[in-house]
């Protein structure tokens, strides 16, 4: 199992490694130690892929919102944990928020 950090892997590369890992694990030819290491690596790869998909989904949501042309577009920053202040204030007073 590769000890390579997943931080620098693209979504496609991480998914390909995950698929290969699952194939090896399903073959039944790995020792218990290799299976556990594979499971740990798979969990890391899955988390990385999920985080990238979440970031892409948020970016698409930002790019397709209907703001009447009054907003300014900027690249999504996945390190931002919360919405901009203007979005948070609007959400507090919105009646159509389901939660």
Please tell me about this protein's structure:
The protein has a domain at 1-67: Orthogonal Bundle (Helix Hairpins), CATH 1.10.287. Mean pLDDT is 77; it is low at 85-95. α1 (11-27) runs antiparallel to α2 (32-64). The protein contains three helices and no strands. The protein is mainly alpha-helical and 99 residues long. The N and C termini lie far apart (43 Å).
Radius of gyration: 20 Å
Strand residue percentage? under 5%
Second CATH tier, the architecture of the domain at 1-67: Orthogonal Bundle
CATH topology of the domain at 1-67: Helix Hairpins
Give helix % range: 55-70%
**Strand segment count:** 0
Largest sheet: none
Extract low-pLDDT stretches: 85-95
How far the N terminus sits from the C terminus, by CA atoms, comes to 43 Å
So what's the CATH class of the domain at 1-67? Answer: Mainly Alpha
The computed structural class is mainly alpha
Order of helices and strands: HHH
Q: What gross morphology would you assign? A: elongated
Number of helices: 3
Look at the structure and give the mean pLDDT.
Answer: 77
Features:
99 residues, elongated, mainly alpha, Helix Hairpins
Task: Please outline what is shown here.
This protein has 99 residues and is an all-alpha fold.
Draw up the topology in text.
Blueprint: H1 11-27, H2 32-64, H3 85-93
Helix pairs in contact: 1-2
């Amino acid at each position: 199992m590769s000890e390579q950090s997943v931080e620098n892997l693209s979504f496609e590369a991480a998914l390909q490694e995950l698929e290969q890992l699952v194939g090896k694990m399903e073959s039944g030819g790995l020792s218990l130690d290799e299976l556990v290491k594979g499971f740990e690596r798979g969990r890391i790869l899955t988390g990385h892929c999920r985080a990238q998909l979440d970031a892409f989904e948020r970016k698409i949501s930002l790019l397709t919102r209907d703001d009447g042309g009054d907003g300014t577009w900027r690249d999504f920053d996945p390190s931002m944990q919360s919405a901009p202040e203007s979005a948070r204030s609007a959400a507090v007073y919105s009646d159509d928020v389901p939660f």
